Amino acid sequence: ERRSESSEKRKFSTDFFTALNTLERKSKWKRKLKHMKNVMIDTLYGVEADIGQLEKQIEGSDVQRYYREASKAEKEKLPQADKDLIKQALWRSVIQLSVNLQKEKKLHQETRVKLASVVGANA
Q1: How many angstroms separate the CA atoms of 13 and 19, rounded?
Q2: Distance from CA of residue 65 to its chain's centroid?
Q3: How far is CA 102 from the centre of its chain?
C-alpha cells in the first residue's frame, strides 16, 4: 500500500510540475510576443512621427518660395545682389533637404536593424 501511495505522489508531482512548466513556458512566450509587439508598435510610431516631422520640414522649407522668387527675379531683372541672395537661399534649402533625407534614410536603416534584432531575439 505504501508503494502505491508514494507512486501516486510521484505521479501527481510529475504531472503537476509538467503542467506548471508548460504554463510557465507559454506565459514566457506570450510575454516575449507581447514585448516584441510593443517594441514594434513603439518603433513604428516613432518612425511615423519622425517621417511626419521631416515632411513638415520639407513642406515648410523655403524651396518653393525661393524658386518662385528666383523665376520672378529673372522676369523682373532684379539687381545682381538680390539674385545672388536668392541663389544662396536656394542652395541652403537644397542642402537642408538633403540633410533631412539623409536623416530619414538613417532612421529607416536603424528601424530595420532594430526590428530584425527584436524578431531575431524572439524567434
Answers
A1: 10
A2: 31
A3: 15
Global model pTM greater than 0.70: no
For residue range 29-65, list pLDDT tens digits in order. 778 878 877 887 787 777 778 777 777 776 666 666 7
- Cβ(86)–Cβ(70) below 8 Å: yes
If one counts every other C-beta atom within 10 angstroms of the C-beta of residue 92, the result is 14
- Strand ranges in 4-120 using DSSP code E only, listed in sequence order: none
Higher pLDDT, 68 or 115: 115
Is 19 strand, coil or helix? helix
- How far, rounded to the nearest angstrom, does the alpha carbon of residue 67 sit from its chain's CA centroid? 33
In whole angstroms, give the CA distance from residue 52 to residue 100: 12
Torsion of CA 85, 89, 90, 92, to 10 degrees: 140
The amino acid sitting at 100 is N
Domain residue ranges of the chain, discontinuous segments joined by +: 2-121
